[in-house]
## 1
Amino acid sequence: MTGGDEKVTGTLVFILFLINVLLAFALLLLYMRQNKLMGIEKRQQLVLKESEQVMASLLEEIKDENEKLLSRLMESRETEDKTTAAIAANIIMEEKKLVPATEEHQDVQEEARPLESKQDPLSDVSDDATDPQPLREQVKLLAEQGLTVTDIARKLNKGKTEIELLMKFR
């Protein structure tokens, strides 16, 4: 071989060596990027697991709160039913105790009242226990005159809830 061939061969070997070094560097970069992506993927999986755990615990808390709410609602309904039954029984007992006035007797009473008493809503219902009108009629009369539930309850010495129930059962 001649000196020129050796130069060309040396140059080619040098170029091949540089290409190998560049390829090794490229492989190293690819390996580093792959490791970086795998690390990111692992972190994302951890974040996903944590968020799933947080969501599961939140759903459990919501479920527990809903169960507590339902139990409270059931208790309040039972209490309302008992209260309603007691008030209804009280109303029935009061109606049985009071002697109902006949329609003719009521008409005569209304005609006999002076005009002033018809204008004063509080004077239409007497406070005496001997009043022949049933409680339901008294409540109806006062409600027609525009009194509020509170005013009616105060006037008849009854509970506000009882008056509200009487008005609902009309």
## 2
Amino acid sequence: MIIQPFADVEGLVVEYLESRLPDFPTEWRSTAVRAESFSERSPGEDPRLSVRSEEVTGNYPITQNAAVRVTAWTDDRDSAKALAHLAHAALMEHVGDRDVVAVQQVDGVVAGFDPDVPEPFASFTVLVTQRPS
């Protein structure tokens, strides 16, 4: 039998952010949080946080480090930045748990515009250090 030594990092980040949504201002509490490699959006869709693991390294079997990008999608640049800052702050407050040793900032919040997904976004990257499950 094969046993996966580390939990899915994208799933861990999604679960954590979903658990923190009640702490967000009222306008953001119903934000969807999804693990997705490529965002498909139509203009005017509800705000969303996308979580994607970009690189994984580590010191198997002791720890695993995953660079995770979180992207906030909304219908305007300022709202995207506000939502991304809230998600970033929530992840920086992660104190660790059974699966996660620590979360550290890699890149702060940066706003952008994707012509393939015609909406503004804001994203940041964190390093999630995991311990074996």
## 3
Amino acid sequence: MKILIVLILLVIIGSLGTALVYLVKDRTRSPRTVKALTFRISLSIGLFILLLLAYRFGVLQPHGLPRIQPPQGNPGQTEGLPQP
């Protein structure tokens, strides 16, 4: 799954580069730049939906940051800080 995600990201970057080349070198009013950017946006939306579905069906698991436990003691008081 990770390889597929990386490949899609590389195709997205390639499409963006292609659109840049068309924008700089193509002096006519051809729609190639718009088509390349539309393809890139479609791939980006498709990748986002793929990631959401992979998470929903358990293919991808987030690992995130570890949870920080609140300090033990009196509620509302923090140890080591002067109290007002």
## 4
Amino acid sequence: MLLRIDEVFQNKGWDTRKKILDELRKKPQSAYELSKRLGFNYSTIKYHIEILEKFGLITKSKKGTKSVYIVTKNYELLKKYIEEDKRS
């Protein structure tokens, strides 16, 4: 179980979560759409989505009968911080 937000970015799953976030920044999508677009199985995408939701980096919204995920402002703020930290 993850305990700190920095673990979201530093463990080996970050590459997958970053791909999910990059896709969601383009447009809101369902877990199924993400799995097809990124070439990961559905359960892998759902696992990473749960982590991203837990830390408030994405949120779920209903679009008709399906759930779609949207990047939150928290991620945009955190991304800016990460980029600044890498430069130092």
